[in-house]
Amino acid sequence: MEKLKLVMIGNGMAGCRTLEELLKHAPDLYDITVFGAEPHPNYNRIMLSPVLAGEMGVKDIILNPLDWYRENKINLHLGKKIEKIDRVNRTVIASDGTKAQYDRLLLATGSSPFILPVPGNDLPGVIGYRDIADTDMMIEAARLYKHAVVIGAGLLGLEAANGLLLRGMDVTVVHIADWIMERQLDKASADMLMHSLEQKGIKFKLNASTSELVKGESGRVCALKLKDGETIPADIVVMAAGIRPNAELAKAAGIHSNRGVVVNDTMQTYDPRVYAIGECAEHRGVAYGLVAPLFEQAKVCANHLAMHGIGRYTGSVTSTKLKVTGIDVFSAGDFMGGDGTEEIVLHDPSGGVYKKLVLKDEKLIGAVMYGDTSDGGWYFQLLKDQQNVAEMRDSLMFGEMAHASRVGDVGHQGHNKAAMMADTAEVCGCNGVCKGTIVKAIKEQGLFTLDEVKKQTKAASSCGSCTGLVEQILASTLGGAYQQTNPSDKPVCGCTDHNHGEVRKAIVDKHLLTVSDVMKELAWKTPNGCATCRPALNYYLISSWPHEAKDDPQSRYINERHHANIQKDGTYSVVPRMLGGLTTPDELRAIADVADKFKVPTVKVTGGQRIDLLGVKKEDLPKMWEDLSKAGMVSGHAYGKSIRTVKTCVGAEHCRFGTQKSMSMGVKLETMLFGMYSPHKVKLAVSGCPRNCAEAGIKDVGVIGVDSGYEIYVAGNGGIKTEVAEFLVKVSTDEEVMEYSAAFLQLYREEGYYLERTCHYVARVGLDYVKKIILDDAERRKELYERMLYSLQGFEDPWLQAVKDPEIRKRYEILAV
Amino acid sequence: MSTWKTVCELIEIPVLGSRIVRSESEGDIAVFRNAEDEVFAVHDKCPHKGGPLSQGIVHGKSVTCPLHSWKIGLDTGEAQAPDVGCTKRYDCKVENGMVLLNLA
């Protein structure tokens, strides 16, 4: 069958990102043709300012080299401007007569600088600031001439002025409003910014409107005349007074356009064969001029071009960051405030710091910062998430560090000031990646997302504790171009576009029972997934359909497939179960015997009160288990995303302070939960009195005995980031402890995403939600408890299975040749 | 010179799984079977830190190392970008339901 024809007009960042996304979804659906008016492949337009300033070269900012087009079989026409869209014959016609037919047309024509309608605006030396040609012209002018005038003190104008200044020109910025960057800054911050730019050498004329550009003897522009009569010498005039979406082509073809080409939430224009994206498009009345929204649009557009038909673009909140070296400005949202808003302001003019936060209904709605912008990313996230900030209000102004330290947070999940870190500072402790390496990769390889940085630098790709910090580095390096994705919305992995929630819902709603059924139902992109998605799918299947879905050992991580813990040299560690950390002389003798018999090099007591036999060869595992089974010992699950241990203190059985029998309570809990697989590992502890020797405050479920009963705490974590468990409920009997703990864990098993610990799960859904279900709704609590008991019913010790079943036992044997 | 040796029956290797074959001259070799019943053999050591590839999760024509998740192409022995490295591969085939390995 002949492929559909996709023609793209425009070869910029929004369009090419759409093609990249489309090629990921449906690499063979279309014959793709691209027309670009410029003679360059797609480059990073937002990096033109550093090029002008001499900090980067043109080749540094190329995003898709010509090879990329070739490799993806894209028919590329450079330097050809499309003059006409013939919608009747579904053909586009370029200035040189080249024609191309389309089944789908993608308009990605971008925008143009607004050229002031004043006499002389067409003189040589008068330019906009948009592309590589403009940048080259400015660099050339800086070499030959002295005087430059920039009209417009917005983001682009100031970056142009800074670049020309650095290239040795005498620069004046003419601006019509009362203060510079009035769209992004309030007066106070703008004044500080203007002051420091003046100190660099840029001159400003505010409240000034241009009446005429004067022609010199050479025919080139020589001066700019203001309405008040003042004349400023000018060998080059840069128009940076705003942009206009390039919608003329669409308008001429009869496609409905206002300022830009009007599109719906799927980026379709009024002609359903024609899509528009990026700066030329107008979505819900807004034409965006920043890069981050364009990438969101690209995702949605590609999804629809690929005929997946999911995904909707609903608009973006944007933030801006000025790229002038040495000056930090950040603004986002509604920073001017107004009726019903409150402002928190910190202003230190001599220290060069200004921060203003605008709040409405206890939420952050806008922020302006000058001088110290290191918390910009954090504020922007609070703003986009519409998070209630009432509780952190008194420390909000002092940034994320202050907030984090106030809540006694000793973890370091990015709670550092990325922007202030030295390039040599280590960011990722697992893989030894320093900040400079990450920044360099972001700039040179044109990375925009956390996943790209993980892949290219390995930072944040192991334990993930530096994820927040890497995101901050992305935000501070890319500025407004960075768009943080909500982790819950992220696809499970590269094999699918579906997120964890969607996958589980499909498994539950459609009663799917095998990994391959899920992949078929949800149109997985790879034949049998990968090491990321398969274990997740297997967990969702067995937890959603206990006793129905069959466990797939090949979709288990090796530890769970072999019921032992793999070590760095490929040997395994074996941890026999000791309920509640209790053992007997007979058990210890059995452990000592196997350690002797199999020459176990290391025997260690674990943090969970068990004995770990380290350095066991794979082929010895079943033999060792056989001996341990004979002594009545079973698998301790120390290797799995499963119940690990219930740690106990001595308690009322022996301790003179004990109020409750913590050992027997612990044994009861651990007996009940034997064989429980979960999204991530689960650890419990029971202490017999509030002295809490079992450290129940940092466990997934922590039980603390008091004279009148037990207090139950949930969602604690002692690992990567210490999280103190939160108080759930106080109960009086052992039976209630079992019911409430099991109900909470079952809720987590049913709703937690794979590899999400209880603390992350509770942070995501909120403790109030958990309380509503577990505490306020006795019926649901009982149902959860029963579902837990049902799914654990008849669980067989995996060690004994491997000993008894020759088929399983064979998997541990080594073949010989 | 080809030195094809019989290793085991195909059904003795789980689908999307592997077996370790120990050779005196070559050390441990991981023999994989994928979903299409193709078989592959590579030296059972990840080029990264020597992890036992035989214990990884098999997908398509690749295996993910259980230690640090490098992805190794089973038909080439090469690590997938951005990682760089290569582990030795051996010719391997199925004949009459038997898996044969060539160590030459």
* Biggest interface: A-B, 30 and 37 residues
What is the first-to-last residue Cα distance of chain B? 7 Å
Number of helices of chain A: 27
How many β strands of chain A by DSSP? 37
Largest sheet of chain B: 6 strands, antiparallel
Total strands of chain B: 9
Low-confidence stretches of chain A: 406-416
How would you characterize the overall build of this protein?
The complex is a heterodimer of chains A (817) and B (104). By secondary structure, chain A is an alpha/beta fold. Chain A contains 27 helices and 37 strands. In chain A, the strands form 10 sheets. Chain A has a 5-stranded parallel beta sheet, with no helix packed on it. Mean pLDDT of chain A is 90; it is low at 406-416. Chain B is 0% helix and 44% strand. Chain B has 104 residues and is mostly beta strands. The radius of gyration of chain B is 13 Å and the shape is globular. A 6-stranded antiparallel beta sheet of chain B has the order 1-9-8-4-3-2, with no helix packed on it. A 3-stranded antiparallel beta sheet of chain B has the order 5-6-7, with no helix packed on it. Chain B starts with a strand and ends with a strand. Chain A binds chain B through residues 455-456, 458, 462, 526-531, 534-535, 553-555, 557-558, 561-562, 566, 568-570, 618, 810-811, 814-817, and chain B through 5, 7-8, 12, 14-17, 19-23, 28-29, 31, 34-35, 49-52, 55-60, 64, 66-69, 71, 82, 101, 103.
